[in-house]
Amino acid sequence: MADILENRTYDEIKLGQTAELQRILTRDDLALFSKVSGDLNPIHMDEAYARAQGAKGVVGHSLWATGLISSLLANVLPGPGTVYRNQDAEFHRQVQLGDTLTAKVKVVEKLPESLVQLACSVVNQAGETVMTGRAVVVAPTAKQRIEVADVAEVSVRHHDSFAALFDKVRALEPIPTAVVHPVDQVSLEGAMEAAAATFIAPILVGPEGRIRAVAEAHGIDLSGTEILDVEHSHAAAARAVELIRAGTAEILMKGSLHTDEVLGAVLNKATGIRTERRISHIFVMDVPTYPKLLLVSDAAVNIAPDLDAKRDICQNAIDLARTVGVERPKVAILSAVETIRPKIQSTLDAAALCKMADRGQITGGILDGPLAMDNAINLEAARIKKIDSEVAGVADVLIAPDLEAGNILAKQLIFLANAEAAGIVLGARVPIILTSRADSVRTRRASAATAVLHAHAVRQGLHDKPAH
Questions:
Q1: Distance separating alpha carbons of residues 219 and 215, to the nearest angstrom
Q2: Distance between alpha carbon 263 and the CA centroid of its chain, in Å?
Q3: Strand partners, 122
Q4: Domain segments of the chain: what residues?
Q5: Collapsing DSSP states into helix, strand and coil, what is residue 402?
Q6: Taking a C-beta distance cutoff of 8 angstroms, is the pair 27, 289 a contact?
Q7: Pick from 161, 268, 323, 428: most CB atoms within 10 A?
Q8: CA distance to 36, 82, 104, per residue, from 71 (Å)
């Protein structure tokens, strides 16, 4: 059934009559209000900047509160047919992301010529006054009942975090990259696109005849590109790993072969490039409805990680978050609940991981858990659950309890929330780029850019290399 708006005419309005509404300030509200108003003050969108100004987090626009008053006047009291004449407002405190605001208007005077004066107020969920003021409107004289028009859904992308990655990489020297068995269009194009963007200096390892045939069939320029001719994919993986061991290449990029085949060569005890740290996959995700990059691990390598593996998964993700510009990453250890339950192993692991961070066994980030998905990424959900945490609601990294949960989470974000997902594997001597046939050109470039940034960070000693 359609919603109906019904007004109150000047004759129907009584002194003392009131109306109110309640709204939660969301990230979409902030983004849309910034876009429509042109108010691009970073205190409304940049959490780090807002905290540097003394706020608890990003701050809502003061006029968003008066917008709630305008909504009441237009829709409820007096309602359709109302004409604004005057509004004064005094603002008493900032509105925080996730605040629940209650707006109220009260008729205080009826004036000639259908004018009505109303007292206005907005309070937050703690009962603290956010705004007070007076409004003067021309009340309608004719009764109206109007069906509410449908408003088109608006998709908000608050940022373009991948563009920021590309900008960082452009200023850096290309990294020599061993590309394993690029014998199909997707893998060869992915490598050469990254080369054209000057992210990597590719060394193509595989059957040269097949590589050149693919390039000719699809118009891919291989001019000046080194090709190491080997007979098949298994040999290509082994030869690429040799290049890493020799220091000739500093990144490994998967081509047209199974991931297991690449990782088998990487983890070979005698000839591989394994370290004492467990390898893990990390998705670097640009989610339209989240205000910053979101890292998800592990969704592709570790099937049922134990506590030792989760420690390394956390450390790898923290290192990568720092690589992409997060000074002290906030890491949410996910479970189905936010309290420790002995029968739910992931909650026990989360608690142990947090204590390991306290004791210096995991470094460089702020860990909290167990946290359910909602209160890991939504401030209002965390507030409702009364979770007092530096991580809850503002996580940079989500650590899944196992591969199934991580994979489902990542794919939900991609296919339901229109997220873009780059990804690399860390924990070996060098970052490993795992491309997929489903990857877009943009996400392939983002994966390459992320690996290049990490390789440069390792060069500069910004991360401790895992012990060999």
A1: 6
A2: 28
A3: 103, 131
A4: 4-147, 161-459
A5: coil
A6: yes
A7: 323
A8: 16, 11, 10
Mean pLDDT by 10 residues, the chain (468 residues): 82 96 85 85 79 83 94 95 96 89 96 97 94 97 87 60 86 95 91 90 96 95 95 96 96 93 94 95 92 93 97 98 94 96 97 97 97 93 90 96 97 90 94 82 87 92 57
Start-to-end C-alpha separation, the chain: 66
Q: Which CATH number fits domain 161-459: 3.40.718.10, 3.40.50.2000, 3.10.20.30, 3.40.50.720?
A: 3.40.718.10
Residues facing residue 89 across a β-bridge = 133
Pairing of strands 129-138, 100-111: unpaired
What single-letter DSSP state applies at residue 361? S
Within a 13 Å sphere around the CA of 160, how many CA atoms are in the beta-carbon half? Answer: 6
Count of beta carbons in the 10 Å neighbourhood of residue 37 = 13
Q: How far apart are CA 434 and CA 146, in angstroms?
A: 56
Question: What CATH class is the domain 4-147?
Answer: alpha beta
Please spell the DSSP secondary structure of 380-399, one letter per residue: HHHHHTT---SSTT--SEEE
Give pLDDT, residue 207. 97
pTM here? 0.71
Question: Pick from 193, 132, 221: which is nearest to 433 by CA?
Answer: 193
